Amino acid sequence: MKNVTLSAGADLIEKARAVAKSENTTLNAAFREWLESYARRKGDVEAFRAVMESLKHIDAGGPYTREEMNER
């Protein structure tokens, strides 16, 4: 595991530590969880785009007015 040095205000760090403690974890563990989530975001966007691309041939028959949508 690599170490990373980050900078933040002392007050912010103490508040984050208090939140982590209230969640029965450490600031390091909370940061690792956030970092994993952050790193996955691009993959999530790419997966969404792939699904949308695979569905683009479907014609929903729209656009409809609000009244027409409520009639369905």
Short description:
Helix content is 67%, strand content 0%. The protein is mainly alpha-helical and 72 residues long. The model has no long low-confidence stretch (mean pLDDT 87).
List keywords for this structure.
72 residues; mainly alpha; 3 helices; elongated
What does this structure look like?
The chain has 72 residues and is an all-alpha fold. The protein has one domain (10-71). The chain has helices spanning 10-22, 27-55, 66-71. It is elongated and about 55 Å long. It starts with 9 loop residues before the first helix and ends with a helix.
Please give the largest β-sheet. Answer: none
Mean of residue pLDDT values: 87
Helix content: 55-70%
Structural class: mainly alpha
State the end-to-end CA separation. 56 Å
